[in-house]
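debug: dumping io for the single-chain case to check the tokenizer round-trip. Nothing else runs in this session.
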Amino acid sequence: MKKRMVIMVLALLIVFGGIFGWKAFVNMKTAEFLANQKAPPVTVATMTAEKQTWQPSLRSTGSLRAVQGVDVTAEVPGKVARLAFDSGEQVEHGALLLSLDTSTEVAELQGLKAQRELSRQTLERKRRLRERNVGSQSDLDMAQAEYDNAGAAVQAKQAAINKKTINAPFAGVLGLRQVDLGEYLDPGATIVTLQTLDPIYLDFTLPQQQFDKAAVGQQVELLLEGLDGTFKGEVVAISPKVAAGTRSFDLRAQLDNPDGRLKPGMFGRVELLQNQTNEVITLPQTAIAYNPYGDTVFKVVEQTPEGGGEPEKRSKRVNVRTGETRGDQVQIVSGVDAGDEVVVAGQIKLRGGDRLIIDNEVLPENKAEVGQARNY
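debug: decoded output
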């Protein structure tokens, strides 16, 4: 009985030992097979790091204002007798805009002119009498004063009539008409706005630390949401005062606006170009992996396989230090040299040391905004 039990235990040990041994053998061979297998190559797009000439700039935001802009208002009260303009019209300096009713003032003016004529005749009589030593000097002086007062009254009434004819104070573009024919206007009532749009001013500010980097005559570029293109101008004035609250100073640039696309009140991004250029190494932003522990890129390097053969293209992760950004381009301060081949698409699949297949049929846009570097 005991002998039989021993035989059964030995048999079970042999069976289970064989099973576990076989599995260990299979696992070992599988591991060896996988270890000898090469990882499949990764398809990526690459680009060569190159030097570009960048013009540094100071960045700000600014708003546009008219070189000349006013609310045309009524100086005296009256009823609108004539409207001589349309909303949005381009007018020249002195163009008639509006006339108020002057019938009452014209009648009063005629009475004053008659009074002036009577005073003139009285003065002439007094003067002739005085020449014949008839009458006193005081009578002549009083007649002269009455004539002068009558003339002044005529001039005052004529000036009041003239104020009821409203003309454009300068050439420009009218806004929306705010009055109607026959409407009674009070003094100060707005009739229409008038703006000179070409050229146009751009007002912006910079922090006091950049005061020495700004000068009259420097070029500026303006980017506006909703409008294509970059609008160029130059600084025409710099405030000598730094605001105590913001520690910033004001600048004013002038931009040509022949087509009238720029409007007063528009708000946009301003670049004040510096009078220098720098040679910098650049890469597309898509090439940079931004991480909390540092920015990295994948270089393409050639490596000979362990068993020999033709060199293979492999990925190599390197740390980089980035600088300014311009459009889709980033300045590389260190980590990459001009001429290095860098992965710009497909790097999410890389770990470093990967075999690569280069396919540059579809590359990310490699474009920088013309003229300056951006400070962020």
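debug: round-trip ok. Residues 370-376 have pLDDT under 50 and may be disordered.
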